[in-house]
């Protein structure tokens, strides 16, 4: 009788672990979603820092670049392939292409536009927990 009970419990535990692993694998790209504070030291001052805000709705990723509370840009052609993101945005009529790689909570990449290519780094902004 004890062997059957142990077998049943073992089966349930293994089943739960396998399903949890599949769920984690399915959502592995969701670490991309969030706010990434970027720094592009060689960019003109007003574009050298800001946030890239990445959201996911209905399985599609979308991005917005926030330079200040008054200046935000929507991205176009936002793509995610493994840990690589790419998009384009229009800044003062000039198209800027971005491609970067995410490793953990760090993003490194390059922004290319008509005047050249700039190095960009970003750190994921952690959500602050509310204290009750």
Number of domains: 2
* C-alpha geometry: globular
In spatial order, strands of the major sheet run: 4-3-2-1-9-8-7-6-5
Q: List the uncertain runs.
A: 5-27
> What amount of the residues lies in strands?
over 45%
**What string, H for helix and E for strand, traces the elements in order?**
HEEEEEEEEE
Mean pLDDT: 82
Return the CATH class of the largest domain.
Mainly Beta
Structural class: alpha+beta
- Compute the number of helices: 1
CATH-defined topology of the largest domain? Lipocalin
The CATH architecture of the largest domain would be Beta Barrel
Distance between the termini: 49 Å
SSE inventory with pairings:
Elements: H1 2-26, E1 34-39, E2 49-57, E3 60-68, E4 71-74, E5 76-81, E6 84-91, E7 94-103, E8 106-113, E9 116-124
Antiparallel strand pairs: 1-2, 1-9, 2-3, 3-4, 5-6, 6-7, 7-8, 8-9
What can you see in these coordinates?
A hairpin with a 2-residue loop joins strand 3 and strand 4. It is globular, with a radius of gyration of 21 Å. 19% of the residues lie in helices and 52% in strands. The chain has one helix and nine strands. It is α+β, with helices and mostly antiparallel strands. It has a nine-stranded antiparallel beta sheet with strand order 4-3-2-1-9-8-7-6-5, with no helix packed on it. About 17% of the residues have low confidence.
């Amino acid at each position: 009788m004890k062997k059957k009970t142990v077998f049943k419990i073992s089966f349930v535990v293994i089943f739960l672990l396998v399903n949890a692993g599949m769920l984690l694998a399915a959502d592995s790209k969701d670490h991309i979603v969030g706010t990434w504070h970027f720094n592009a030291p060689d960019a003109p001052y007003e574009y050298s820092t800001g946030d890239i805000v990445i959201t996911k709705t209905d399985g599609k990723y979308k991005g917005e670049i926030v330079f200040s509370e008054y200046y935000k840009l929507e991205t176009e052609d936002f793509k995610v392939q493994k840990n690589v993101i790419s998009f384009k945005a229009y800044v003062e009529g000039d198209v800027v292409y971005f491609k970067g790689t995410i490793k953990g909570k760090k993003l490194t990449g390059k922004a290319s536009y008509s005047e050249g290519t700039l190095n960009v780094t970003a750190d994921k902004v952690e959500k602050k927990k509310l204290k009750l």
